[in-house]
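User: Fold this; tokens only.

Assistant: Input:
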Amino acid sequence: MKFIPFEHLIYITDLSEQEIFTRLSERVETKKFRIIRTHSIKQYKGHVRNDNTFEISRILKYRNSFQPEIEGKFQQSNNTVRIEVKMGLNLFVILFTIFWCSMAFLFFIVQISSNAEWSFETFLPLFMLFFGYLMVLVGFKVESGRSKKDLSKIFEAEGMIDQ
């Protein structure tokens, strides 16, 4: 298990590029701006493009700000198709997390520089930093694990290389 909220995977399948495009398109609802949530029968939302690329994320019945955004491309390679998938956090979530962790670390520096004696309050910002990191990592890894299983089934992948 990597300790960062990012995944780089390569799936190898015997399916054709057209079959992969069709399978993804059947399971991906085009992203639309909606004020009211509607229930979808599809598993993912996003875009599958004709240039053999896709940008998708799972449709959740709950809120998880740390769910992975999935980008991928697929291309023919000998008798198989190679599908390269990258999973990462939303840019806004990354920026907010960096800000939040920076503030917690700054408060820790202020605490240790202003207090001569060590106490629970001195280490409270470090606990906040650790909790923030753990919240991001667990939220991301739970959803990325589900997406990896889904994609493996969709692609009928023979193997998956986790890079």
